[in-house]
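Re: beginner question about structure tokens

> Can someone show what the tokenized structure looks like for a real chain? I only ever see the sequence side.

Sure, here's an example I had lying around. Input first:
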Amino acid sequence: MAVVSDVPSCGGVAYAAQHGIPTLTYPASKKGLFPGLTPQELVQQLKHELGADYVLLAGYLKLIPVELVSAYKRAMLNIHPGLLPSFGGKGLYGERVHAAVIKSGARFSGPTVHFVDEEYDTGPILAQRCVSVSPTDSPKQLAARVLEQEHQVYPYAVSALADGRITWREDGIPIIWEAS
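And the corresponding structure tokens:
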């Protein structure tokens, strides 16, 4: 297990350090403020030195390097605060997603857990939850309801991945089987 962040001063890295969880920085700061790993070094550290079986993303806004995607095919999940394939892609994150949903007049929104591929928010969808969108919602109000569902659906999907309860249809669609 490890925490990887592009911001070594973030709360997640501090929490990990306090609890003896290894931390890695990827990528290096473009302004040279802090060192970081190359994509190849990141794969080496995670897969071979730390023995990580899965990569779980939360709040990482950059494109994932192809080296990591290849090393963790069908083993890397991300959670997105909108219903994909609508309301996803570069630049659609956080309250921007919720504002776009409201502006579109969509009646439903919700989080999507998806496998990560080489592009933004285009990997196979594993799980989704729906919340109603009120015509009077603000992005913050909608975000609060979606976040409640994120806290339920992501652990559910991660558990299915770790328990081996995901199978793949011939067309590349993942299916979660319920634990019995």
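Each token stands for a local structural state, so reading them left to right follows the chain. The first strand starts at residue 3 and ends at 5.
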